[in-house]
Amino acid sequence: MLMISQLSANQKINEEHFLVKKVDKKTARNGNNYYDLELNDSTGVIIGRIWDNALPACNFEIGKVIEVSGQTDEYNGKLSLIINACQIVNGEDIANFKTVIPTMVFDLETVGDKFEELDQQQQDYLFNTLEKYEEDKEKSKKRTALYAIFGKICAAGCYNPDKKQGITIVIGEKKLCPEKNNFTYIVVKNEKELLEKFWELASKVQRFVTFNGNNFDIPYLIIRSGINRVKIPFEIKKYSQNFIDLEDRLKQNGKPFKLEMLCRVFGIDDPKDKGVTGAEVSNLFYQKKFQQIADYVTRDAVATAELYQIWREYLSGEI
Predict the structure, then answer these.
(1) Count of domains in the chain?
(2) Which site among 89, 159, 176, 251 is 20 to 30 Å from 72 CA-CA?
(3) Residue of 166, 236, 164 whose CA lies nearest to 207
């Protein structure tokens, strides 16, 4: 079987199998109709074009595997496939033809500066700007971890949902034992090392999945990377298909649900069931309970990944 990643220009194709993911009917300048088919296999995507003279020899349908004969063509450096004939193939498992996009599901945990250690200007800014609608000032004092100018990232749980393997990076003092046997824990000395390791991992994938990442995780990463002078290795395009924020995708009436509530209704283990929440991470950090932080962020990453798998398979509209 010839794979899409192996194709080159002016190559003859004979009875190769591809999945049809999208069909666009178009009209040429001469008024004749033609079709562009988005064809997939596990290694990539290519556009297959059927001109009007080949239409009688072609049978295709979105979501079906077709057997294709034709020849590749290259224009402006972009490879396509001119289809002479194609027929639907029954009995093929379309899961084998889905392109695997290298994906990282991630979650961050942050620790805030102690309120008493902020200078007067910083304290006033926290109370009067960032937390101006909170009447309970004692609560505001405990929320420094929410703001990248008053906190830092102390742990990052990173998970590959296709390989079902993960890496958790955590600031700590000694080697930690992973709670889940498909995870590796990396202990670093400070936030700069954590960020460098995170971006090293991120540079190897194409899709990023978060829960509330557009509002929290991604801006936090950007600001803290700048403060630590750690270079981000690629352009971040929020709200694209390569940055999936499940909180945004699963809103109702414009209102987001909490992750633990979605876990409950979707039958996913609640990452907070073991008694740790994000609000407690700062206290755990100052108590040097790094193991608990690492375990918690790992559970969050896995729960987010399981929710992503449900969204991708049933809710995303992807074939």
Answers:
(1) 2
(2) 89
(3) 236
Phi-psi region of 269 (alpha: psi -120 to 50; beta: other; left: phi over 0): beta
**220 contacts: CB under 8 Å, gap ≥ 6:** 108, 110, 148, 153
Q: What is the model's pTM?
A: 0.78
Helices (H), the chain: 120-125, 137-141, 191-202, 218-227, 246-249, 259-266, 281-286, 290-310
| pLDDT at residue 319 is higher than 60 | no
Q: Residues 209, 176, 229, 221: what is their CA dihedral angle, to the nearest 10 degrees?
A: 20
- Crossing angle for the helix pair 259-266 and 290-310, nearest 10 degrees? 50
Residue 83 corresponds to which tokens in the numbers above?
Answer: 């289809």
* Summary mean pLDDT of the chain: 93
Dig out the tokens for 108 from the structure: 């961050």
CATH code, domain with 12: 2.40.50.140
With CA atoms as reference, report the closest residue to 115 among 107, 103, 125. Answer: 125
- Is the pLDDT at 55 greater than 90? The verdict is yes
73 shares its domain with 151: no
Q: Are residues 158 and 264 both part of a single domain?
A: yes
Rounded CA separation 232/221 (Å): 9
Helices (H), 180-217: 191-202
Same domain, 91 and 149: no
